[in-house]
From TrEMBL:
It comes from Planococcus lenghuensis. It catalyses: DNA(n) + a 2'-deoxyribonucleoside 5'-triphosphate = DNA(n+1) + diphosphate. InterPro entries: AAA+_ATPase, ClpA/B, DNA_pol3_clamp-load_cplx_C, DNA_pol_III_gamma-3, DNA_pol_III_sug/sutau_N, DNA_Rep/Repair_Clamp_Loader, HLD_clamp_pol_III_gamma_tau, P-loop_NTPase. Residues 529-555 are annotated as: Disordered. Residues 37-178 form the AAA+ ATPase domain. Signal peptide: none annotated. Its EC number is 2.7.7.7. This is DNA-directed DNA polymerase. Coiled coil: none annotated. The keyword Iron-sulfur does not apply. The lineage of its organism: Bacteria, Bacillati, Bacillota, Bacilli, Bacillales. Residues 535-544 have a biased composition (Acidic residues).
């Protein structure tokens, strides 16, 4: 007899031989045992997870001569013929190569005929998502009201491509990916039955490469057995699957911990030259650092390790790493993996990821304090102690002399990085009028209410302080808000448009921080002829432009008079210290 591949020779023939999928097996077995089977089933899930095998086992149990049973006997003529594929009442239909409506109509026309030798006529339609819309429409009515002897089992890897009208008429079972531990266990059973020696670490590599598919795992196992000859080696599995060894992972991780980027990039370059795919490398690195995190946080779960092992040098590496650093590295690699999907330069992304990992937060535990550092810390502690004593002595002196007038603390002036337009502000002050500042302030609330919320937030602590015929000065409490308003062109355009809409005039805003405004205003008042203005106010008591009269102008402080002229008496408050 010709050689059969492992995945064909060891296809499960009963539910007990199936690996995993407990939720599927138990439901189907109970339905068989208690006679609660239905007319249509949908098996969906990734490739190689047992969908077609489960369909055939279920078909054998339905038509077994010992029914109702939860397991097919695999001994009666019906079970044997179904296993051999010679039973005329079990029709396997490949929708990938027979997707036209004509093939589906041919099936539908034969559905009404009773089975020849079995209790049920079973239709197993594989890759059902490949059917055309016309074929689905032709199948729909029959699937809804089939004859009592007909059972449909639909299998697909892409259930989202099926019409909802088809899905709603089936009992759906979702098959899950196999865990690496289950795959290794099944491969050991196959190799022991075949009498082939094995290396368990090599089987773990194969299980990792299979990505949850049992058929893929058995196919890779077949290749590794053929390649290795008499004895399976770990290196054989690495070469066949395209994976990398534990030692390579260890050396690259060690280079990252030591911040030796040259060594890490050299090892990566060697892997790429050996034909390793950078996309696959990123995925493997994520798994490796996950293993290190598992070793560090849950030492008792060695069975869950996939690429690393609980050997002493891996435990030592895990101890050198902080958990937070492993989280950061996994996050960087995951983001890199997503970005690689849209680029042809995957190697560059991998190199960039290694650089980011080296430059991330410190990966190793903090070293013990050095003697010099301890001396500096002691000196600082002594200085702090002396300062505390001085503060206590100063407080005592203040209590002993309550009559002493406390000095006001000068508010420290922050260094502003905003470039203040002093010239423009002075121009506004030279031509400032009370009517213009009143026009701006009267409509201020309306303008804020119609701005976007993000724009209005910039003006929460802002205030118009002076205005001329075509511009006004807007004072900000905080430098950062002033800078943001000045840089935001969208805000300036929207603000000018609303202000013109409400005032009827176009005013260009001139931004200035609070501290700078106080200095500019004081310098302007000192340098722009206050004495002359005060004398003129005394000579013309009836002047309408002076709302306060000559006597008041003569007696008032010249700074106050100039402020009231520029901004209006209603907006000037005088506080005596």
């Amino acid at each position: 007899m010709a050689y059969q591949a492992f995945y064909r020779a060891y296809r499960p023939q009963s539910f007990s031989e199936m690996t995993g999928q407990t939720h599927v097996k138990q439901t189907l077995q109970n339905a068989l045992l208690y006679g609660k089977t239905t007319h249509a089933y949908l098996f969906s899930g990734p490739r190689g997870t047992g969908k077609t095998s489960a369909a055939k086992i279920f078909t054998k149990a339905l038509n077994c001569e010992r029914a109702p049973v939860s397991e097919p006997c695999n001994e009666c003529p019906s079970c044997i013929s179904i296993s051999e594929g010679s039973n005329t009442d079990v029709i396997e239909f490949d929708a990938a190569s027979n997707s036209r409506v004509e093939e589906m109509r041919d099936i539908i026309e034969r559905v009404r005929f009773s089975p020849a030798n079995s209790r049920f006529k079973v239709y197993i339609i594989d890759e059902v998502h490949m059917l055309s819309n016309s074929a689905f429409n032709a199948l729909l009515k029959t699937l809804e009201e089939p004859p009592e002897h007909a059972v449909f089992i639909l299998a697909t890897t892409e259930p989202h491509k099926l019409p909802l009208t088809i899905i709603s008429r089936c009992q759906r079972f979702d098959f899950k990916r196999h865990a690496p531990v289950d795959i290794v266990k099944r491969m050991i059973e196959v190799l022991e039955d075949a009498g082939i020696p094995y290396n368990e670490q090599a089987l773990k590599i194969i299980a990792q490469a299979a990505a949850g598919g049992m058929r893929d795992a058995l196919s890779l196992l077949d290749q590794v057995v053929s390649f290795s000859g008499d004895e399976m080696q770990e290196e054989d599995a690495l070469l066949v699957t395209g994976s990398i060894s534990q030692d390579t992972f260890y050396h690259i991780a060690g280079a990252l911990v030591d911040k030796d980027i040259a060594q890490a990039l050299s090892l990566l370059e060697k892997l790429v030259q050996d034909g390793k795919d950078p996309v696959r490398l990123v995925e493997d690195f994520v798994t490796f650092f996950r293993d290190l995190l598992l070793i560090k946080t849950a030492p008792g779960l060695e069975a869950m390790l996939e690429l690393a092992s609980a050997e002493p040098h891996f435990v030592e590496l895990a101890d050198r790493l902080e958990a937070s650093a492993l989280y950061d590295w996994i996050s960087i690699l995951t983001k890199t993996q997503q970005e690689m999907r849209f680029s042809n330069h995957t190697k560059i992304y991998m190199e960039t990821a290694l650089l980011q990992m080296v430059q991330a937060a410190p990966a190793v535990h903090a070293a013990a304090p050095q003697p010099e550092l301890e001396a500096k810390i002691s000196a600082l502690e002594s200085m702090v102690h002396e300062l505390q004593q001085q503060l206590k002595n100063g407080a005592a002196a203040q209590v002993a002399a309550p009559a002493a007038e406390p000095q006001k603390r000068a508010r420290p002036k922050s260094q502003s990085r905003f470039s203040v337009p002093v010239g423009r502000i002075q121009e506004v002050l030279k031509h400032a009028t009370k009517d213009d500042i009143n026009a701006v302030k009267t409509n201020w609330a309306s303008v804020l209410g119609n701005l976007q919320r993000s724009h209005a937030a910039l003006l929460n602590d802002a205030e118009p302080v002076a205005a001329s015929a075509n511009a006004f000065v807007l004072k900000f409490k905080y430098d950062i808000h002033c800078q943001m308003a000045s840089d935001n062109q969208t805000f300036a355009a929207a603000f000018n448009q609303l202000l013109q809409q409400y005032t009827g005039k176009s005013y260009d805003p001139v931004f200035v921080p609070d501290e700078n405004w106080l200095k500019i205003r004081e310098d302007f008042i000192k340098t722009n002829g206050l004495k002359q203005q005060t004398d003129e106010s005394e000579e013309s008591e009836s002047n309408d432009d002076n709302p306060f009269g000559a006597g008041a102008a003569a007696e008032e402080d010249p700074f106050i008079a100039e402020a009231e002229r520029l901004f209006g008496k209603d907006f000037v408050e005088v506080h005596d210290d």
